[in-house]
Amino acid sequence: MTNVTFPRLLLAATLTAAGLLTSGCAGYRESRGYILDEQLASAVQVGTDNKTSVEKTLGRPTFTGQFNDNEWYYVSRNTSTLAFRDPKVTEQTVLRVRFDAAGNVTSVDRTGKDQIASIDPYGRTTPTLGRRKSFFEEFFGNIGTVGGVGAPGAGQGQ
After folding, report:
1. Alpha-carbon span 147 to 137, nearest angstrom
2. What CA–CA distance (Å, rounded) separates 93 from 113?
3. Which residues contact 155 (CB under 8 A, 6 or more apart)?
4. Domain residues of the chain, as ranges?
5. Which range, of 4-13, 33-42, 94-103, averages the lowest pLDDT?
6. Which helix (H) or strand (E) holds 89?
7. What phi, psi does 71 have (nearest 5°)?
8. Phi-psi category of 6—alpha, beta or left, where left has phi over 0 and alpha has psi -120 to 50?
9. pTM for the full model?
10. Cβ 103 vs Cβ 51: under 8 Å
């Protein structure tokens, strides 16, 4: 009788261990940024709305243009991740509202996931122009230069 229960016990323990191991690989979804309401976004009209009315309708933007304060961006992004992998973008919406100098809406543009750019860094180090120095040249290169005569920060001649 003990020979029949041992394989069942072993099978139950194996299934339990496999279930615990695969539960760590569960995926999850995440939403970041502005939650875009289609009705509110379509309510913003070119020529009739201004910065104040857009802020009352859509709220404060996710960010404004870096070189031009008359561009407002509302960014929404949904991602999914499996276990320890990098998150993958499943959906993204960027709503850009442009204003003229008087603060009136001149255009409302919408882009999606197709505008995402994948950037791969060049190797593990950043290439620089100029001479490459060895470790010892970098480490011992400043000996005698700090506080020397004629160097910035040096005392008056002694």
Report:
1. 19
2. 7
3. 147
4. 26-116
5. 4-13
6. strand 88-99
7. -125, 125
8. alpha
9. 0.60
10. yes
- Token pair recorded at residue 139: 């480490």
Question: Of how many residues is the chain composed?
Answer: 158
Residue 57 pLDDT level (bands cut at 50, 70, 90): very high
**Which residue type occupies 101?**
A
Nearest CA to 35 among 65, 74, 72?
Answer: 74
DSSP states of the chain as a string?
A: -HHHHHHHHHHHHHHHHHHHHHHTT-EEEEEEE----HHHHHH--TTT-BHHHHHHHH-S-SEE-SS-TTEEEEEEEEEEEETTSPPEEEEEEEEEEEE-TTSBEEEEEEE-GGG------SSSS---SS----HHHHHHTTTTTTT-TTSTTPPS--
Q: Dihedral through CA 121, CA 123, CA 89, CA 94, nearest 10? A: 0
The residue type at 4: V
Residue 76 β-bridge partners: 33, 93
